[in-house]
């Protein structure tokens, strides 16, 4: 900047400074891929920039710089094609044999990009690629893989870098339609792709994803260019070998191999899938199933779902088609079953809720398949299937993980407001379009609980969605994240306030809530937060209308489910939450109150001291709030017993006080059940 301003000797200095200012050069990708092209537009700078990239940047220690340099050479090759072909490419080919790993890696990437750049320019100009790449250059590019293989440079510490680079080379040379059909190098390339996918578990974690993606892209390009016969059909022997081998590798005990080969099957072109679709879908479907030995293989299930979705897009849909050729009425229901089944994947391990990756992939797959069918063959979408899709996605949109909730909301809105022909059989479409106008797609930040929950709770008013939205909300309201709990609770209570004077709506809501509880008994992922949700709702008087009626069915069923949930449980968190629900249930008069008090008296003698103390404390607070539960003449004594007894003392001491409390409250004293002797005798 100083030189340009003071001396004025730099050609086009002002123009370059305007484009390459302080902020523009702060972004590396922008520098290498955009500004470099602008500067190279001035002939004085084109060749020196190319030379600098080849001399200094291709062998840089930072892998990102090497990749950006290769892409920059791709762009610049189209500015100076003769120089790139005659001087740059031969130099890069010699660098691919370097002893230095970084130089070797950068040079292979650069060879791939320069060759692709020259091919694209030749196509634009309507010239054969041979006009830029002579026989020596083509031979040099073909030999790279064999030379690296002979020197065993795919093995050891730098092997993963070289595998990545050569996969990029395979992709670019295939896309550049190099004349290698029937050549032995094709088998060499295929071996490298297969071996890379098979040994992904040996690749270091930070670059595993990159290597996997490069191998899958290389495979797609290779198959498209070299495996089709002149007629456009697949080579039968090649197809048989490839599909059989990949389906066998889907059963590998290594999770990463399953990931790689799932994506590889998803990347196969249409002509290779023709006649084998059922086999491929069955193999991928088996990967998505959870078995005891591979329960933690969430990444392979995610990648298999991505592959199923991609295969469906590749083969297309046709009513009355053959199930081995296209998606049709014979296989579409099975595909939907697989995708919907994966929305129940809540696997957790040391990494957290890894099932969320699977659920996100399943939602994307459901969206892509439904939009494809809606566009081309809407009659293949059954009403029951569409309802399941919308309801399950709505459930995910009301759950506790921000990222999953935002993704689900985007899928829901896309299905509701699909461009072109609308998706058929969407339940309550008219009401949904009013509740979720198209403008919400762009304006609402579904990641933010404060914006998402007030909108998603509107679905509780639509019977078809109520069950699944409640299932998701129960997990959010009873969760641990402060912001999620606050806004989901506020939104739920806001909805409850609106139906307080509508007995029919409240009955429907209460019945659905208890149905969620019953369906998820002993499923701690749902039942523990659901107990917390019920506690909050009872404490906030959401069911006061039911409390006006003696032995209301809601109270009776709620108590029975809570008793079933905590039977023989040693989970302190679950027991504490149930204590709060039993305390809330004493507001229901009649037999429900009596049973709740009896259950609380039993918990006052629980083997865990912390549960005894919690029960006494919560019962004390409940009686302060609902003093009409106990006769006035004994209330003071009940409160004194609860407040002054050391409930964490020895059980025999506590039991006497508990029995006295039972007498005061008018509930029968619990009887000790004698334990059977060692031989089953008394």
TrEMBL record:
GO molecular function, one term: GTPase activator activity
Residue stretches making up the Tubulin-folding cofactor D C-terminal domain: 388-574
Source species, domain of life: Eukaryota
Gene3D superfamilies referenced in this protein's UniProt entry, alphabetically: Leucine-rich Repeat Variant
Pfam families xrefs: TFCD_C (PF12612)
Gene Ontology cellular-component annotations: lateral plasma membrane
Bilayer-crossing regions: none
Biological processes, Gene Ontology terms: adherens junction assembly; bicellular tight junction assembly; microtubule cytoskeleton organization; post-chaperonin tubulin folding pathway; tubulin complex assembly
Family affiliation: Belongs to the TBCD family.
The protein, known as: Tubulin-specific chaperone D
Species this protein is from: Neovison vison (American mink)
């Amino acid at each position: 900047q100083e030189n340009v301003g003071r001396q004025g000797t730099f050609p086009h200095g002002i123009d370059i400074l305007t484009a390459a200012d302080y902020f523009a050069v702060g972004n590396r990708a922008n520098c290498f891929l955009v500004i470099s092209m602008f500067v190279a537009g001035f002939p004085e700078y084109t060749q020196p920039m190319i030379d600098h990239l080849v001399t200094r940047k291709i062998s840089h220690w930072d892998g990102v710089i090497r990749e950006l340099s290769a892409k920059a050479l791709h762009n610049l090759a189209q500015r100076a094609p003769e120089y790139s072909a005659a001087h740059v490419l031969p130099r890069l080919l010699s660098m691919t044999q370097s002893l230095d790993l970084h130089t070797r890696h950068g040079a292979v990437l650069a060879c791939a990009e320069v060759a692709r750049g020259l091919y694209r320019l030749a196509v634009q100009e309507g010239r054969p690629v041979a006009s830029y790449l002579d026989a020596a250059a083509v031979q040099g590019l073909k030999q790279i893989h064999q030379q690296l293989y002979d020197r065993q440079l795919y093995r050891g510490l730098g092997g993963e870098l070289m595998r990545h680079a050569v996969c990029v080379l395979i992709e670019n040379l295939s896309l550049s339609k190099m004349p290698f059909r029937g050549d032995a190098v094709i088998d060499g390339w295929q071996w490298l792709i297969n071996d890379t996918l098979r040994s992904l578990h040996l690749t270091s974690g930070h670059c595993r994803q990159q290597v996997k993606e490069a191998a899958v892209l290389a495979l797609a390009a290779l198959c498209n260019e070299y495996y089709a016969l002149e007629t456009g059909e697949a080579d039968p022997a090649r197809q048989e070998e490839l599909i059989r081998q990949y389906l066998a590798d889907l059963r590998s005990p290594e999770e990463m191999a399953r990931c790689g080969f799932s994506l590889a099957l998803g990347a196969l072109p249409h002509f290779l899938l023709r006649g084998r679709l059922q086999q491929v879908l069955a193999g991928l479907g088996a990967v998505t199933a959870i078995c005891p030995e591979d329960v933690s293989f969430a990444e392979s299930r995610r990648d298999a779902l991505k592959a199923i979705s991609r295969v469906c897009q590749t083969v297309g849909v046709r009513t009355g088609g053959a199930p081995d050729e296209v998606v049709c009425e014979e296989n579409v229901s099975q595909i939907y079953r697989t995708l919907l089944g994966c929305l129940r994947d809540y696997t957790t391990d040391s990494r957290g809720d890894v099932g969320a990756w699977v659920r996100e992939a399943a939602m994307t797959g459901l969206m892509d398949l439904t939009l494809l069918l809606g566009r081309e063959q809407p009659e293949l979408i059954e009403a029951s299937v569409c309802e399941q899709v919308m309801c399950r996605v709505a459930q995910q949109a009301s759950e506790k993980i921000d990222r999953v909730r935002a993704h689900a909301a985007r899928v829901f809105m896309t299905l509701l407001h699909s461009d072109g022909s609308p998706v058929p059989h969407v339940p309550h479409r008219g009401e949904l379009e009013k509740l979720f106008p198209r403008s919400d797609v762009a304006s609402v930040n579904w990641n933010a609980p404060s914006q998402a929950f007030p909108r998603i709770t509107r679905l509780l008013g639509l019977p078809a969605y109520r069950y699944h939205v409640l299932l998701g909300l129960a997990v959010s309201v009873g969760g641990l994240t402060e912001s999620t709990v606050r806004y989901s609770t506020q939104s739920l209570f806001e909805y409850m306030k609106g139906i307080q004077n509508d007995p029919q709506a409240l009955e429907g809501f209460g019945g659905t809530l208890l149905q969620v509880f019953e369906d998820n008994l002993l499923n701690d992922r749902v039942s523990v937060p659901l107990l917390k949700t019920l506690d909050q709702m009872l404490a906030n008087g959401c069911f006061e209308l039911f409390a006006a009626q003696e032995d209301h069915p809601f109270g009776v069923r709620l108590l029975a489910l809570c008793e079933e949930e905590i039977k023989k449980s040693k989970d302190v968190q679950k027991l504490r939450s149930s204590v709060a629900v039993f305390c809330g249930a004493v507001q229901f008069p009649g037999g429900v109150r009596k049973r709740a008090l009896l259950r609380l008296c039993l918990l006052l003698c629980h083997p865990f001291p912390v549960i005894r103390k919690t029960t006494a404390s919560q019962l004390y607070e409940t009686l302060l709030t609902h003093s009409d539960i106990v006769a006035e003449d004994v209330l003071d004594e009940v409160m004194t017993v609860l407040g002054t007894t050391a409930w964490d003392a020895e059980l025999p001491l506590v039991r006497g006080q508990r029995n006295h409390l039972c007498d005061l409250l008018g509930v029968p004293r619990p009887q000790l059940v004698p334990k059977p002797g060692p031989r089953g005798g008394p």
